[in-house]
Specification:
By secondary structure, the chain is an alpha+beta fold. The protein has helices at 76-96, 102-114, 122-129, 133-146, 149-164, 171-183, 188-202; strands at residues 4-8, 13-22, 27-42, 45-59, 65-66. The protein has 2 domains: 4-72, no CATH class; 76-202, TerB-like. The protein has 7 helices and 5 strands, in the order βββββααααααα. α1 crosses α3 (122-129), α1 (76-96) crosses α4 and α1 packs parallel to α5 (149-164). The longest helix is centred in the middle third of the chain and has 21 residues, at 76-96.
Length: 205
């Protein structure tokens, strides 16, 4: 007599490990990514894996389980690297657009330092300006993937301030800002709104 059937294991198989930002701990922690599958059994023994019936990410510190989508959130370490890299791309773009005056360079360097690189200087800015445009686009897109729209607006506003550091925005600076906005996932109308808001805020009273 052959005995067969379907069974679901309560033990979840390990499919991955790594580091994530744990919402419960409030910091970067190690995780286990586990999945349960339904099996075809023969003589009460699992033989053929079938469909998945459950999946979760568990923090190895607090043991809390989360939906696997939690892995899409950036870790603190990832943000610490992505924020200054994105601002360096913005500063270099504005410099290539004509922001080479003493005031513009100073504004660009200050913006990168505020983003998390306190030792950044003009020499590094010039070196960044010589990098391929594709590299800057990739850095901006990586930044946008990890930030909320409001945070992207703040980064674009820094680009506008760099451009305004030595006077009104030139056509080339407008183009540079729109290019930055596009790579941050913002529409032209959205970008224009940010430009107008920053211009209004720095306009002499």
């Amino acid at each position: 007599m052959i005995i067969f059937g379907l069974a679901t294991f309560s033990i979840f198989g390990l499919i991955g490990t790594g580091q994530f930002h744990c919402p419960n701990c409030g910091g970067d922690r190690h995780y286990e990514h586990r999945v349960a599958r339904r099996f075809f059994t023969l003589f009460f023994l699992p033989v053929i894996p079938l469909n998945k019936v459950g999946e979760f990410v568990r923090c190895k510190t607090c043991r809390t389980r989360f939906d696997p989508r939690v892995l899409q959130r950036p870790t603190t370490a990832q943000l610490a690297a992505t924020l200054p890299a994105g601002m360096r791309a913005i500063a270099a773009t504005m410099m290539r657009a004509g922001g080479t005056s003493e005031w513009a360079v100073s504004a660009a360097v200050d913006a990168v330092r505020r983003a998390g690189l306190p030792t950044y200087d003009a020499q590094q800015l010039w070196a960044d300006g010589g990098q391929p445009v594709e590299a800057a686009a990739a850095q901006l897109q990586a930044l946008a993937a990890q930030l909320a729209p409001e945070a992207c607006e703040r980064f674009l506003a820094e680009a506008v301030r760099i451009g305004l550091a030595d006077g009104p925005l030139s056509p080339a600076e407008h183009d540079g800002i729109r290019w930055i906005a596009s790579n941050l996932g913002m529409t032209p109308a959205h970008a224009q709104g940010v430009i107008a808001t920053v211009q209004q805020s720095v306009r002499p009273s």
